[in-house]
Amino acid sequence: MNTLFPIYVKLDKIQVLLVGAGPIGLEKLQAILKNSPEANVHIVAEKVCLEVEILVNKHNRTHLSKRSFKESDLDKVDLVLVASNNRWLNAHIQYLCRTKHILLNVADKPSLCDFYLGSVVQKGNLKIGISTNGKSPTIAKRLKEFLDQLIPEEIDETLALMGQLRDSIQGDFHEKVKRLNEHTKNILENQLSARAKSDSLYDS
Ligand SMILES: C[C@@]1(CC(=O)O)C2=NC(=C\c3[nH]c(c(CCC(=O)O)c3CC(=O)O)Cc3[nH]c(c(CC(=O)O)c3CCC(=O)O)/C=C3\N/C(=C\2)[C@@H](CCC(=O)O)[C@]3(C)CC(=O)O)/[C@H]1CCC(=O)O
Ligand SMILES: NC(=O)c1ccc[n+]([C@@H]2O[C@H](COP(=O)([O-])OP(=O)(O)OC[C@H]3O[C@@H](n4cnc5c(N)ncnc54)[C@H](O)[C@@H]3O)[C@@H](O)[C@H]2O)c1
């Protein structure tokens, strides 16, 4: 059983610290900014790869300190990601975060993590996070690719229309929920079968 609790966090409202800016630090920064371009991210690293510098220059709410980590980097920080090659540093930051009640992810080190990053399927407003409970990130990636192919792009239009419909329905909450449920009963089946039809036309 996977007992992890999934949440979707507003990174523009909190402060993130990323320690390490090698290839794995870059992957974490890309994951953050792809989902949340307005995220507030402070990156601290002794050595910084060029791609990280480029990303930082493109996002005005990210900034970079090219130096060693120090304890005060955790001041006013809500969430920490570590992508360092230094076991002592990883353990030290874990100790500090635990003491300060700050949530921590150490890339590829499940035993040091309070939370894991998920694999993410995104279609406009729809976002699906996938976790394999740390058993197989590769399967998470494959599932992401599968769902990305399966779910039609039109789902975003549907979400926009449903948003309008939701605002326009009068009545009490239970009545609203009932009408929204009736309206959406067959919506995915319809979109998937329309998609299957157009795929088979395309194939033949
Ligand atoms: C989802 C994703 C998000 C992200 O990182 O952005 C992610 N890993 C991704 C890819 C990936 N990572 C690794 C491979 C190589 C093949 C393989 O090992 O399978 C691939 C596949 C590839 O790159 O093709 C190596 C690896 N990863 C971990 C370990 C340590 C261990 O398992 O003990 C090792 C071995 C390191 C070593 O050998 O030294 C651990 C974690 N990786 C997690 C997340 C967390 C669990 C998520 C879950 O529950 O599924 C967790 C626990 C902690 C964390 O890092 O948050 C991202 C999907 C990318 C996408 O969506 O395209
Ligand atoms: N590269 C991979 O393919 C890969 C795959 C799986 C796991 N990992 C693991 O992920 C971690 C990071 O990998 P990487 O390839 O990005 O490593 P890397 O050596 O390229 O980068 C490490 C980063 O940590 C920074 N750092 C180290 N000590 C620091 C300190 N005291 N203060 C501030 N910054 C400090 C370095 O300056 C650098 O920016 C390693 O533990 C590695 O074993 C890497």
Automatic annotation (TrEMBL):
All copies of domain Siroheme synthase central, residue ranges: 124-148
Pathway in which the depicted protein is active: Porphyrin-containing compound metabolism; siroheme biosynthesis; sirohydrochlorin from precorrin-2: step 1/1
Keyword Membrane: no
Keyword hit for Secreted: no
SUPFAM superfamilies assigned: NAD(P)-binding Rossmann-fold domains, Siroheme synthase middle domains-like
InterPro entries: Met8-like, NAD(P)-bd_dom_sf, SirC_C, Sirohaem_synthase_central, Sirohaem_synthase_N
Domain of life: Bacteria
EC number: 1.3.1.76
Pfam families: NAD_binding_7, Sirohm_synth_M
Reactions the enzyme catalyzes: precorrin-2 + NAD(+) = sirohydrochlorin + NADH + 2 H(+)
EC primary class: oxidoreductase
Keywords for this protein: NAD, Oxidoreductase, Porphyrin biosynthesis
Protein name listed in UniProt: precorrin-2 dehydrogenase
Organism per entry: Sphingobacterium litopenaei
